[in-house]
Each structure stands twice: as C-alpha cells, then as structure tokens.
Write a structure and sequence with these properties.
single chain, about 290 residues, alpha/beta, Rossmann fold, 5-stranded parallel beta sheet, 4-stranded parallel beta sheet, 10 helices, 9 strands
C-alpha cells in the first residue's frame, strides 16, 4: 500500500485525538472577539481559509486567511495562526519573523523542533498526524479537526462520515474523466481548492475549484461529457443541474465537507495509479519549500 493511502485511512481516528486536544490548547488559539489572521502555503493555506470562514461565520471575530508571502503590512491583527506541517516552509518563517514583537503568534505544526516553531510565540504540535508522503492529507484535516473543535463544532458526525468515506466504493472511476471540477459554498470553498490540489499533485490532473455560484460565470463553458463536477457540502441544486446539462457527471455524496475530502483523496490515489504515477512522490514537489 502507498504511504499516502495508509495516511488517508488513518484520518478519522486522528480527528478524535485532535478534538480531545482542543480544550487543552484553547488558550493558545485565537480567542473569541480577537481579530485574527491564519497563514499558510499550499494545502495549509486552504485549511487556513476553511478555518477563517468557520470562525467568522460563527461570529467569533474578524478572521482573514492569507498566503504567507502575501500578508499585508497595512492590516491590524491581534493574533496570527500559522499552519505548517514541516515547520520549515520559508515563506511562513519569514512572515513570522517579520511580525516578531508586533503581534501574538501561534503555529500549528507536526514538528516541534523546527524553525517555524522557534519563531512563533506559541506552538500546537500534532506530531501524531505527521506524514511520510509529500502530498498532504491527514495533517491538514487533523489540523482542521482541532480548529473546528476549538470553535465549538461537534465532530461525531464528521468522524462517522469520514469512516463511511473510507469504507464505501469510490463514486466514479476517475480514469474516465479529463477535467475535475470541485464546487463548494462558505467555509468549504477552501476544501474545494484543496480537493483540486490533491488530484493535481498526485495525478497531474486537470482540476479546477470554484465557489458554487461562480461556476456559471464562465467556467461552465469548458464542461462536457469528460468533466466530473463534485459538490463538497451543500451546493445550490440549480448549479448542479446546469452542469449536468453540459453532459458532465455529477457527484454529491452529501458527507461533511471534511469527510468528502477523504473520498476525494482516495480518488486522487486511484487516478495516480491508473496513470502509472506514484502518489507518494509527485513530480516536481518536495515535502516542504525551503528557499535559499
């Protein structure tokens, strides 16, 4: 079994562990009412976006999500939350170093002894969710499980959905499609971007992701019989109906968005294998981007 597949399968149990940690680390994470920003790169930025959407949607304070290299110096925050699996990503490290002494910071990472952990004011370590594979799966979702639990979400249903997403057959044979489109609404838009990234990384697939209502504003023109349109969380049925009229195949499993991502991660591994690719070692990628 590929390491990626094994790591995907471990997620529901890791979500339980992360949810149990939430009360212990609550004092390190942004408090209700604090203006906060979540930063990251790649997958970590997508998780930051999901967290920001959830936190602000619950009325817990203004929350932005920013790619680490693009944080504006003209915005004011009380807390910076950095997400980084390895703790070595150069852009995240530079961002935290530039903020030293001006704002409180906390890093969520899998590696306690890392440059980012040293640069952050506080750290939350999810070493039990670390990964061998280059393509991130379980660290990202376990981080989101921790943050969701901290925001007050009960994850029992999410975990049950995650277990179902591991047990059931894939809804489609991904090798039958040329284009993969992921649609979502609200906080799940970050997970739609993450879903697209998984197929792009693992299987070199043509993937796109959009807030669902935006799909008809141009992107639908590329859809056809070789397109798979996958809804992550609740999506306006009229959007899916319009996509179906193009000849595209529609998937709307109805799982919690985080569990839906598990099903998509499995699909990415399946597609990689069908294309003769190794999902553990995607082309042109490394575990972390470390710049000179």
């Amino acid at each position: 079994m590929h390491a990626t597949a094994s790591e995907i399968a471990s997620q529901p149990e890791l979500w339980r562990r992360a949810a149990a940690m939430a009360p212990v680390v609550a004092g390190l994470l942004p408090a209700p009412g604090e203006p906060a920003v979540a930063i990251g790169c790649g997958t970590s930025h997508h998780i930051a976006r999901a967290y920001a959407g959830l936190r602000e949607g619950k009325g817990l304070g203004t929350t932005d999500a920013v790619i680490a290299s693009e944080l504006s110096p003209h915005r004011g925050y009380e807390r910076v939350l950095a997400v980084t699996r390895s703790g070595t990503t150069t852009e995240v490290l530079r961002c935290l170093e530039a903020l030293t002494g001006t704002v409180s910071s906390v890093a969520v990472t899998a590696v306690a002894d890392s440059p980012v952990a040293a640069a952050a004011g506080d750290i939350v370590v999810l070493d039990f969710a670390d990964e061998q594979s280059v393509v991130q799966t379980r660290f990202a979702t376990t981080t989101l499980a921790l943050l969701r639990a901290h925001l007050g979400d009960r994850l029992d249903g999410t975990i049950a959905d995650g277990e179902a997403a591991l047990a059931q057959p894939l809804p489609v044979d991904p090798s039958e499609f040329e284009q993969f489109v992921f649609l979502a609404h609200g906080w799940a838009v970050g997970l739609a971007d993450e879903a697209a990234l998984k197929l792009r990384e693992a299987a070199s697939a043509w993937t796109e992701a959009y807030p669902a209502m935006e799909y008809r504003h141009g992107p639908i023109s590329a859809a056809g019989p070789s397109t798979l349109v996958w809804a992550i969380g609740p999506v306006d049925p009229s959007v899916l109906a319009d996509a179906a009229e193009t000849g595209a195949t529609i998937v709307a499993a109805g799982f919690d968005p985080m569990a839906e991502l598990v099903l998509i991660q499995r699909t990415a591994v399946e597609l990689a294998q069908a294309r003769g690719l190794d999902p553990d070692r995607p082309k042109h990628l490394s575990r972390s981007v470390v710049l000179p």
